Amino acid sequence: MLRLGEKQKLKIVKKTDFGVYLSEGGDEERVLLPGAQVPEGAGIGTELEVFLYRDSEDRLIATVRTPLLVMGRVARLSVAQVTKVGAFLDWGLEKDLFLPFKQQTRKVNPGDSVLVSLYIDKSERLCATMNVYEDLQSAEGLEAGATVSGEVYLISDRFGAFVAVDDRISALIPKKEMYGDARKVRVGDRVTARVRRVLEDGRLELSLRDTGEAQRSEDAEAIMDLLDSYEGALPFNDKASPETILRETGMSKAQFKRAVGKLLKEGRIEIGEKTIRRK
Which of 76, 229, 253, 275 is the most buried (most CB within 10 A)? Predict the structure, then answer.
């Protein structure tokens, strides 16, 4: 069976003036390998490893060249041009790879580097998509607490920000983590994050928040700045609802309570029945 978008080994079953026809053997479906790419000395029965795609006239064709992207993988490709129908990417073959507008998770421009994978459209043509979730890999050798970096390729109102760690590992910043500076994250941003946990399927759950005393100190100073904007007294304390705390401070309730505890221990604030005041 001829597999579009993949590298496979096929045998030469027929020679012509303009190239050779390849097949898995016998009278099965055949594909043309142009004469300029036929290795010297190859003849009937010679096995060649080729990549199958469609040429400028949408005919199935073989090449001995190795493209920068194959089916089931992800790769970072350069945008060669943008037209009225979509973008075209340089993937190392004569015909550029089509990236439809509907498969773009952000606007792209000529010269941009974009992370994509392959899919076959309704017309049986190879196209690129920036929705690479299905083709990213699971993590190996990473544990909770590790620091990683990657690109945000999709943001979901329901789930959070999807990240391709090292352009190959599937990760997610959950919606519950999308507060504070994390709310400013956009598709295409490169982020450095902490691994909160490794899921059973090998995918990563990330947080953009720092850990330990450094983060508590940063949050504590943010609360002091907020106190100044309220003329020294907040109209709520650490017993307020999580929704109120998130709206007013951009922090989770747990994060807010840790910072308030630090300020209280340092003697910089006092907590009333329904307020927090600067000392």
Answer: 253
